[in-house]
Amino acid sequence: MKTKQTLIERAAAMPATTWHFLNMNDVRIEIPEDLAIAPKVRVFEPWASHGSRDEFENALADAQEAWELEHPEPTAEEQRARAELLEAEADATYGGTAQSNYQVQADAIEEARSLSVAFEHGMGDEVAAYLRYAAEDRVVISAGPGEKVNAQVLVSSVQGGVSVAAIDVVADEGSDVELSVVVDSEQDAAANAGADRASQGLVGTTVRVFADKDARVRVERTQALQEGFTDIDDMGLFAGDRARIDVRQAVLGGSCAYAGLAGDLRGSSSRIEVETRYLGRAEQVRDFNYSLRHHGAKTRCNLQANGVLADKSKKTLRGTIDLVRGCKGAEGSENETVLLVDEGVHNKTVPVILCNEDDVAGNHGATIGHIRDEQLFYLACRGLAQDAAERMFASAIVEQAALDAGSAAAREAVVRLGERMSPGFAELFEGADDDR
Q1: Is the dihedral of CA 158, 432, 181, 261 positive or negative?
Q2: Of 98, 324, 333, 400, which has the highest C-beta tally within 10 A?
Q3: Could you list the residue range(s) of the whole structural domain that residue 308 is in?
Q4: Is 400 part of any domain?
Q5: How many separate helices (H) and strands (E) can be counted in the chain?
Q6: Residues 404-432: tens digit of each pLDDT
Q7: Could you give the C-alpha distances from 331 to 123, 132, 177, 322, in angstroms and in order?
């Protein structure tokens, strides 16, 4: 008998859609309804969750007041000129064209003059609402002006359950916040690799980040789940004047992994950097959606993804950089490098640059390729069979993730995953210093 599902039809939707036959505009997520809500979340000592539940909303409200002072309401004359311009653009007599759904929605967001309306979740509002409901409680990490805060959150899978963390990060002016999120299976979890993808359970996080003027926020999320689990990673970012947000993601385990990130570069000279490393093997599914909107002048964003796909794994990456009217001097770039280990993999990449401003720069590119025959021949000459060589490429990205892990908990999770993939992997890290 088929399990009844909670269905989310248009999760992680692209802001501006492409051809529907490509099946890339969004993703469909099915969540078995018999999964129990059972969040298993720990905030590691000596760090503690602090701040009120409304900390993020209050920070956004304060930013709204400051933004309105710098951007007063358009005068009646400016509003009239704007209306005349839109009317002329839509007039077919002068070659006008109908606006797309994206243009209509984007204009509505800008005309609302509301930071809360403009704030987005990478996986979409429906997914974010479900994750907040499943989390039951909220972890709030706040840093006062000039304060430095470190936080570490572990989210563990629950057999037959939904384990989710809802995390708010609020960094006041000039503060520095480091957040490490580890999504992992318990060491003694009895996950069945041959089970239906979603039957083991769902694990996820929904993270909201508010970075005020001159604040620095670094978020590292490491996912090393066992087979049979589904992972949902949702992020929404807000960057004030000269703020910088760095996000580093490692997506290594689990049968299905969905990651969505949306960012509002609202403040002038603000910056968002996103680095993603992923591995797909067996019949794993990887789906990524990134959307960064430049509102402030001289803002910068950079999206970098590096992945390895093996066996019959599938991956989709949607990356959108939106250069909104008023962001003069802004620069956005996105790039992905994908190594296809086997012929049976399925890879889709769609980089998008949207532009409604001059004096800006947008760059995108992708490098996608198979292991070259001469590389396999070189390894074969040194006694390495093709299957072993292909496994080596897949395990290399796990090894690099362990070396780059920003916390002991993250590295331990990656090493356990590497050991499950390739017995003996843990020996590479025996005696390593775990004091991070």
Answers
A1: negative
A2: 324
A3: 5-59+115-381
A4: no
A5: 8, 20
A6: 998 999 999 999 999 998 888 888 887 66
A7: 24, 33, 25, 10
